[in-house]
Amino acid sequence: METLVQLKLLSDIDLFITLCSAQSDNAIYEEFVKRFLPELKKECLQICKKRKLDEHLGLQIAHDTFEKARKYKSFRSDEIKTPDSRKGILIYLFRIATNLFNDHHSREKKESQVIVHKSYFDDLFCPQNGDSSPERLLRIRDTTLKIFSQLNKKEQKVVLTDLDYKKHQKYLPDDVNERLADELGVKKDTIRKIRERAINKIKKAIDEINQI
After folding, report:
1. Which of the two residues, 203 and 183, has the higher pLDDT score?
2. 32, 54, 62, 153: least buried by Cβ within 10 Å?
3. CATH number at residue 171
4. How far apart are CA 122 and CA 210, in angstroms?
5. In 3D, which of 40, 17, 150 has the Cα closest to residue 90?
6. What element of type H or E holds 67?
7. What pTM value is reported for the model?
């Protein structure tokens, strides 16, 4: 495993290749995001401005782009068609981001159809052998409350708001993030970080439960 100093010495292309081949990749991922987030964020915000979308959507899609690149590890250095490898990586990331924007547009465009987005608690509700008995539903309720109680107050507030809006859309509107930031006394960008931290806690708890 590379040290932080070794990671900083890697070229952009070598860093991305390392990210796509590593299993334990937290440090590599953080370094990769640090290098490319400013330019990806700028591109996503420009798309938001052009399409008249909330800026928060752009920021969230920027981070979703990194997560997608990290998860699928599909980048290949021979895909770069420009002598500037950094520009080639950015083109690759911009393509992922554009697809995410288009996915968002397609969801929004479905006429007269109420979309209920899957929440991170839904994995608890998958019927086991068709079991939807009152006893199992009671266990699900108690488990959900137990997981929720493990979050701190700010995380609980953000999660409750997020779940409410998830009934109809994937991302929280910009004005809702501003209101949450005012209520919790934090910066607007911090709301996204609180949300991500809370979701990771919930998913980890659900994974542990499902493995029992």
Report:
1. 183
2. 153
3. 1.10.10
4. 12
5. 40
6. helix 55-72
7. 0.55
* Full domain range(s) for residue 139: 122-211
Tally of domains within the chain: 2
Identify which of 104, 101, 149, 141 has the alpha carbon closest to the alpha carbon of residue 124.
Answer: 141
Specify the amino acid at residue 194.
I
pLDDT digits (tens, 9 = 90+) for 32-44: 999 999 999 999 9
Residue 29 token pair = 């991922």
* Three-point CA angle 101, 103, 105, nearest 5°: 70
pLDDT in tens, 45-92: 999 999 888 898 999 999 999 999 998 888 888 777 778 889 999 999
DSSP 14: H
* Position with higher pLDDT, 204 vs 115: 204
Q: Are residues 45 and 103 in the same domain?
A: yes
Query: Quick one: how far is CA 128 from the chain centroid?
Result: 28
SS3 195: helix
Residue finishing a domain among 73, 89, 113: 113
Q: Which amino acid is located at 150 in the chain? A: Q
**Alpha carbons 18 and 23: distance in angstroms, whole number:** 10
